[in-house]
Write a structure and sequence with these properties.
alpha+beta
Length: about 220
C-alpha cells in the first residue's frame, strides 16, 4: 500500500533527522499512536501508525465475523484523515489520496523460552549418571511443554503486535494558515491515549505529544 512517493520521501527524511532521539516508527505501545507530517509548499503528507488494540480493541487474528467487521470499520475510519485530524479551515486543505490497512507481524520472539541448563550444577560425588539422565529428560520435557504453551498463547492473544497503518496526501490552498490540528481521533477510538507527532517543513523539524486531555496541536508561527 505504501505507494505515495511524496509520503515515502518526506517521512523517511523526518525519521532520519530524529532517529537518535525519537520513538521509532516500529515501536509498539498500547494507547500510543505515531503521526508524521511533512509539509512541502501546498502539499501535506501524513503517515499514521496505531496499535491494533487502540483501533479495534484486540490484536489477535480475526476469527469471527464480528472481528472482521471491526477491522473493516477501523480501516474505513482511518481512511478519512480530515475526520480524525481536523486542520484549520483557513488552510483550505483537501484530500488528494488516502489509504489505510491492518499490518500484522507474524513473527514471534521465542528467545525468552530458552533455558540455560548450565545453571544446574550437580555434585558428581552425590549423583550417578542415571540420575543426571533422568534430570535432563525432565528438563527437556518441561521445556517442550512451556514452548507449546507459549505458542498457544501467542496464537490466542496476538503476540504479532498488529498495527494499523494509514498514509495521506493533502493539498492545501493556504498552508501558511495551518495554525491548529484538532485530534478528533480520540473521539473515534476510546482506547487511544496519546499520539507522538513529528513535523517536517521549511521551518525545520519539531516533535510534539498530543494527548486525549489536550487534543489540539498549536502550529501557529511554524509555517
Amino acid at each position: 500500500m505504501r505507494s505515495l512517493g511524496f509520503v515515502a520521501f518526506t517521512l523517511t527524511c523526518t525519521v532520519a533527522l530524529h532517529a537518535s532521539d525519537t520513538r521509532q516508527l516500529g515501536a509498539h505501545e498500547h494507547g500510543v499512536g505515531q503521526l508524521n507530517i511533512a509539509v512541502d509548499g501546498g502539499q501535506v503528507a501524513m503517515a499514521f501508525h496505531a496499535p491494533g488494540a487502540d483501533i479495534v480493541g484486540f490484536e489477535y487474528a480475526a476469527s469471527s465475523d464480528a472481528d472482521r467487521a471491526a477491522i473493516a470499520d477501523g480501516v474505513a475510519v482511518l481512511a478519512r484523515p480530515l475526520d480524525l485530524f481536523v486542520l484549520s479551515a483557513e488552510a483550505g486543505c483537501n484530500v488528494v489520496r488516502a489509504a489505510a490497512e491492518l499490518e500484522a507481524d507474524g513473527g514471534h520472539d521465542h528467545g525468552h523460552d530458552a533455558h540455560d541448563h548450565d545453571t544446574h550444577n550437580h555434585d558428581e560425588h552425590e549423583h550417578d549418571e542415571h540420575e543426571r539422565d533422568e534430570h535432563e529428560r525432565d528438563e527437556h520435557e518441561r521445556d517442550e511443554h512451556e514452548r507449546d504453551e507459549h505458542a498457544h498463547d501467542a496464537h490466542a492473544y496476538g503476540d504479532s503486535h498488529a498495527e494499523f497503518y494509514a498514509e495521506y496526501l493533502l493539498d492545501c490552498a493556504s498552508p501558511e494558515a495551518l495554525s491548529t490540528v484538532e485530534f478528533a481521533y480520540f473521539d473515534q477510538f476510546e482506547n487511544a491515549r496519546e499520539v507522538d507527532v513529528q513535523i517536517l517543513s521549511d521551518a525545520g523539524a519539531i516533535r510534539f505529544k498530543v494527548t486525549r486531555s489536550e487534543p489540539v496541536l498549536d502550529l501557529r508561527g511554524m509555517f
